[in-house]
Design a protein that fits this description.
The chain is of the alpha/beta class. It has nine helices and eight strands. The protein binds adenosine-5'-diphosphate (ADP).
Length: 215
Amino acid sequence: MKLILLGAPGAGKGTVAKKLTQLDGSVQISTGDILRGAVKAGTELGKKIEQLMASGDLVSDELVMGIMEERLQQPDCEKGFLLDGFPRTIPQAEALKALLENLDITLDMAVNLSVDREVVLDRLSTRRTCSNSECQAIYNIKSNPTQKGGICDKCGSPVIQRDDETTEAISRRLATYTEKTAPLIDYYEAEGLLITVDATSTEGVLAAIKQKLES
Ligand code: ADP
């Protein structure tokens, strides 16, 4: 499957993407994970974007498109991909459209994960992420805690709260989402690719996507 996952921070894009990869070998491509990996590795790129990301601002469209242009041409994308956190702006969506046309790739759909603001705020402040950039498993201290306090079940690395999960950075990310990313809902509706699903339960989201892919 070739899907775009849309939705506010905390809507569950990453969690849904990880589950979908288990269905048919499609790969999850999270621009957030790729960018955090660059920050952690201390590359030139990482140093440039570290502050920006910690405060909850977006990285430039040019930079993200450069990364994605390369990523989408890697052989593991042939089986399918789940775009998680990309595109994030209208210019990114337009550039992605041109890129996919060039590569002769057709998207199945753009899934809008819809969830109330209060739920998102609660989920983000209680979210914890595995600090190992190869793993990045996601937990929640209320709904999905680690088995051993603070240690990732999958790889044993410490589980941490992300720099951009302070109250201040969270409200900035939500404002950025409303201003820059929410317009993509109308964009993909006009492209005839949009489905909107209630993202309160991950199982419900997965069922809706499977049903649509089969129809
Ligand atoms: P979330 O969806 O929970 O906000 P992500 O992990 O997708 O988190 O993104 C974290 C940060 O990475 C964003 O706040 C932004 O700084 C940067 N980022 C990720 N994807 C993009 C993108 N497509 N365009 C610009 N910046 C991005």
